[in-house]
Fold:
Amino acid sequence: MQTEDVFREANEQIAEKAHELELQQPIPFLCACSDKRCFAHIFLTLEQYAEARAGPAFYMTIAGHEVVGAVVVASHERFALTEKI
Structure:
Protein backbone atom coordinates (compact mmCIF):
# COMPACT_ATOMS: atom_id res chain seq x y z
CA MET A 1 0.00 0.00 0.00
CA GLN A 2 1.36 3.43 -0.99
CA THR A 3 1.84 6.18 1.61
CA GLU A 4 -0.91 8.32 0.10
CA ASP A 5 -3.31 5.37 0.28
CA VAL A 6 -2.60 4.95 4.00
CA PHE A 7 -3.34 8.64 4.61
CA ARG A 8 -6.49 8.48 2.47
CA GLU A 9 -7.73 5.44 4.42
CA ALA A 10 -6.99 7.24 7.71
CA ASN A 11 -9.03 10.22 6.47
CA GLU A 12 -11.95 7.90 5.72
CA GLN A 13 -11.81 6.68 9.32
CA ILE A 14 -11.57 10.25 10.61
CA ALA A 15 -14.67 11.20 8.60
CA GLU A 16 -16.61 8.19 9.85
CA LYS A 17 -15.75 8.89 13.51
CA ALA A 18 -16.41 12.62 13.17
CA HIS A 19 -19.85 11.87 11.74
CA GLU A 20 -20.58 9.21 14.35
CA LEU A 21 -19.52 11.46 17.26
CA GLU A 22 -21.07 14.58 15.70
CA LEU A 23 -17.82 16.48 16.17
CA GLN A 24 -17.69 20.23 15.75
CA GLN A 25 -16.54 21.18 12.26
CA PRO A 26 -14.22 21.83 10.49
CA ILE A 27 -12.41 18.53 11.02
CA PRO A 28 -8.60 18.18 10.68
CA PHE A 29 -7.88 15.72 7.86
CA LEU A 30 -4.41 14.50 6.89
CA CYS A 31 -2.55 15.60 3.79
CA ALA A 32 -2.55 12.51 1.54
CA CYS A 33 0.70 13.23 -0.26
CA SER A 34 3.40 10.65 -0.96
CA ASP A 35 5.75 11.95 1.78
CA LYS A 36 5.46 9.58 4.74
CA ARG A 37 6.97 12.29 6.97
CA CYS A 38 4.18 14.78 6.20
CA PHE A 39 1.77 15.48 9.03
CA ALA A 40 0.07 18.57 7.58
CA HIS A 41 -3.64 19.03 8.27
CA ILE A 42 -6.43 20.21 5.99
CA PHE A 43 -9.44 21.57 7.92
CA LEU A 44 -12.73 20.77 6.15
CA THR A 45 -16.36 20.20 6.95
CA LEU A 46 -17.63 16.67 6.37
CA GLU A 47 -19.56 17.95 3.36
CA GLN A 48 -16.42 19.49 1.84
CA TYR A 49 -14.51 16.27 2.51
CA ALA A 50 -17.20 14.16 0.80
CA GLU A 51 -17.12 16.43 -2.26
CA ALA A 52 -13.32 16.25 -2.43
CA ARG A 53 -13.37 12.47 -2.24
CA ALA A 54 -16.08 12.00 -4.87
CA GLY A 55 -13.67 10.29 -7.26
CA PRO A 56 -12.11 6.93 -6.33
CA ALA A 57 -8.63 8.05 -7.43
CA PHE A 58 -8.73 11.51 -5.78
CA TYR A 59 -6.27 12.53 -3.09
CA MET A 60 -6.34 15.72 -0.99
CA THR A 61 -3.00 17.40 -0.39
CA ILE A 62 -1.67 20.69 0.89
CA ALA A 63 -0.94 22.88 -2.15
CA GLY A 64 2.55 22.08 -3.42
CA HIS A 65 2.63 18.55 -1.98
CA GLU A 66 2.76 15.75 -4.52
CA VAL A 67 1.26 12.31 -5.04
CA VAL A 68 3.50 10.10 -7.18
CA GLY A 69 1.74 9.28 -10.45
CA ALA A 70 -0.99 11.90 -9.99
CA VAL A 71 -1.87 15.25 -11.51
CA VAL A 72 -3.58 18.23 -9.88
CA VAL A 73 -7.18 18.37 -11.07
CA ALA A 74 -8.43 21.18 -8.81
CA SER A 75 -7.01 23.77 -6.46
CA HIS A 76 -9.01 25.08 -3.56
CA GLU A 77 -8.27 27.63 -0.86
CA ARG A 78 -7.31 24.97 1.69
CA PHE A 79 -6.03 22.10 -0.47
CA ALA A 80 -5.24 20.68 -3.87
CA LEU A 81 -7.08 17.71 -5.32
CA THR A 82 -4.96 15.27 -7.27
CA GLU A 83 -5.97 12.26 -9.32
CA LYS A 84 -3.87 9.20 -10.05
CA ILE A 85 -3.71 8.45 -13.74
Summary: DSSP finds two helices and five strands in the chain. The helical segments are 3-21, 46-52. The mean pLDDT is 92.
